[in-house]
Structure formats: structure tokens, C-alpha cells
Amino acid sequence: MNGINRRDLGRLVLAALPVSRLLAKPDSEFGGVQIGINAPYSFHGMPDDSASVLKDLIDLNLSAVELRSQPVEQYYGAPVMPRGRNLTPEQKATLAALRKWRLSAPMSQFQEFRHKWEEAGVKIQIVKFDGVDAMPDDEADYTFELAKTLGAHAISCEIPVSKTRWYGQFAAKHKMMVGYHGHTNITNPEAFGRPESWEQAMSYSKYNGINLDIGHFTAANNTSPIPFLEKYSSRVTHVHLKDRKFNDGPNVVWGQGDTPIKQVLQLMQSRHYPFQGTIEFEYKVPEGSTEMKEIARCVEYCRAALI
User: Fold this and answer.
1) Residue 24 in domain
2) Would you say residue 122 lies in a domain?
3) What pLDDT is attached to residue 8?
4) H-helix or E-strand containing 240?
């Protein structure tokens, strides 16, 4: 890149933000409910470096985030984590290099990252890690150290139910909640789809919790997630917001499916639940629109439900 590395580019992008945007910090706490987004996952096909993600959050007036670890680590030069389970020898070497990098990374640099984002008006409330179930113990420790340093109150991840006994030990050691994310598989005992899956994980550790995706829960169980949310609200780390139809139906524009998004948000408001309502953008962008316009539409949907 002609002598400019990713970190330098990120600083240049941030410096190029209009002064008016830097002065007017985002605020997406609506009626006492903090709205955030799963990033950069929700920005499909868009730049996913830390400066681009921060700029998008500010543009969307989002003051909180469930942030994946990659933009943070890659800002400081970490190898790019390979995707998938069946890795090539080259990918395995890259994964080994990433693990080595993580175990030598000074936490002070992540304090710098947190300060930069908080100065811009964005709180990193949850950190999401991929590939947790394949980590050795020392790397599992690292995930909690990083999340705490970034100011998060919880970690989120997707791992088999049986592995939550192991990971829950680290959650207890660090006294930090883990929200396990579910999808729609209700037949595999290792998948998070049925309420019983979270109940099993929670029996292993009081720090094992629920990242409740209300769209997936609705589609998988053909019922409202509200009773489950009310029953286990003290173990919920954050709620993923999306709209899906019953019977494992598709993601749809908010308000067109069977997921009670508005009712969930208003329940969070009336019960003063402290956890984030996290937009996870997954529906197909309608013709003539853009992803940023549709995400802004989701933010407005939340605001209108709560104000």
C-alpha cells in the first residue's frame, strides 16, 4: 500500500471525518434501551477495518456495538483468521501465527483502541470471537482479557453445547458473562436452537448466558421468544434483533415477519433490562435501496418503538 499500513490508513480515515460528525457523538439509547449492532458482520460486503466500521456506526447514530475481534486485532497487525473447519496447511499455519500473536499482544494497545472508540462516542459492550471451541486454554484466557480491556461486559460466541462446560470455567475465572448465540437447528443436541440447549449450558456455570436471537428463536420454535426472555432475563447478555417467519422461514424486512421485535423492545424498556438490543442485519436489500439505508431503517424502527 505504498508504505501505508492498515493502522495508518485507519487513522487517516478517522482524521478525515467531518468536524461536525466528530463533535456530534452518536446516541442510540432510546427510551432507556441501548440499541447497537453486530459489526462488522452486519455490514455485508463493506470495508471491515476498524476505521470504516467506526465511521459507519457514527453515520448510523449507533453509540454501542457488539464488535467482532477481527477489526481490533487486525488494526494492530494480527494475521487474518482463516475461515472454515477443514483448513489447508497454509491456513493452519496462519491460525498458529494468530494464536502466537494473541499470546504476545500487550493489553495496553487495546486500551488505546477502547479510548479511541469511546472518544468517538461508541461503547464496545460485547466482543464476539470465532473459533472458540478449538482454542487452547491460554488463548481462551486471552479472549476474556481482551474483552475486559475493551470495556465489554460480555463475550459472545458460537460453540457446541458440550464445550460450554469448558468455556464456562474461564467465564467464572474472569467473572464475565458469555452469551451463546443460537440458530434454528433444534434436533442436534450440540446446537443452540431449543430452550433446553441454553438451560444445559447455564447449568454448567452461572456465567454461561444467552445471546438471544429473537428471529432465529421464532423461526426455529414457531413461538414468541418473550416467555423465554422473561424467564431468563438475568442470564441474557444481549438480544439480536431481526425479523423471520415461522417454520424456519426467511429473514424479511422488519415488520413483515412473525418475530415480535417491537414487543421485545418495549418489554426491555418496561422491565428496565440492562442488555443491548443488537441489530443483526440479514434480510435481502430491496431493489433501489442500499445496505446502509436499510440498516438506518432498522435503527429508526427501534427508535420509533421506544420513543
Assistant:
1) no
2) yes
3) 53
4) strand 236-241
Return the CATH number at 112: 3.20.20.150
Q: How far apart are the first and last CA of the chain?
A: 46
**Does residue 281 fall inside a structural domain?**
yes
Of the candidates 165, 134, 141, the residue with the CA atom closest to the CA atom of residue 155: 141
Q: Provide the whole-model pTM.
A: 0.91
Residue 229 confidence class, pLDDT cut points 50, 70, 90: very high
Angle, helices 6-15 vs 50-59, to 10°: value is 20
Q: Which stretches of 174-230 are assigned E, i.e. beta strand? A: 177-181, 208-213
DSSP label at residue 286: P
Contact 140, 163 (CB under 8 A): no
Dihedral over Cα of 23, 28, 31, 34: its sign? negative
Please state, in angstroms and as integers, the Cα–Cα distance from residue 296 to each residue in 36, 44, 51, 108, 283, following that order. Answer: 12, 14, 19, 34, 13
Give residue 183's domain range: 34-80+94-306
> Looking at the 3D structure of the chain, how many domains does it have?
1
Angle (CA) 116-117-120 rounded to 5° is 90
Residues 6+ apart with CB under 8 A from 153: 125, 126, 176, 177, 237
Answer whether residue 123 is part of any domain.
yes
